[in-house]
Design a protein that fits this description.
Layout lengths: L2 H18 L3 H5 L2 E8 L6 E2 L1 H12 L2 E15 L2 E14 L6 E13 L5 E8 L6
Parallel strand pairs: 1-6
Antiparallel strand pairs: 1-2, 3-4, 4-5, 5-6
Length: 130
Amino acid sequence: MTADERSIRALVERWHSATAEGDVDTVLTLMSEDVEFLVPGRDPMRGRAAFAAGLRTLLKTHRIDSSGDVQEVQVSGDLAFALTRLEVRVIPLGAGQENARSGFALSVFRKQVDGAWLLIRDANLLPSPA
């Protein structure tokens, strides 16, 4: 396994642990300013600010417990992709029903001048909540 592949796998792990801790600021450091998120049936979510607003709003009422099993990482120059099997549980802080979903995400990363990798595109293929 190359150093770049290890870095990308570590980024995915940091993403999940920071999300579980409700540490939005750390999650934001793992993505580019112009990041785009694709989910089935919705328009793309564009930009780090939009993602931050959505996550902060959700974490006011829920906790997220997620994990990602990175199935594949391919690196070509300063771009890379990862195919990850996700397990996500969104748990209400008060009354309400937990939502659990699983499926795949295809994520694209760009290597920065300092050698760090950042998420630039993410196609989340998890089914919509019931």
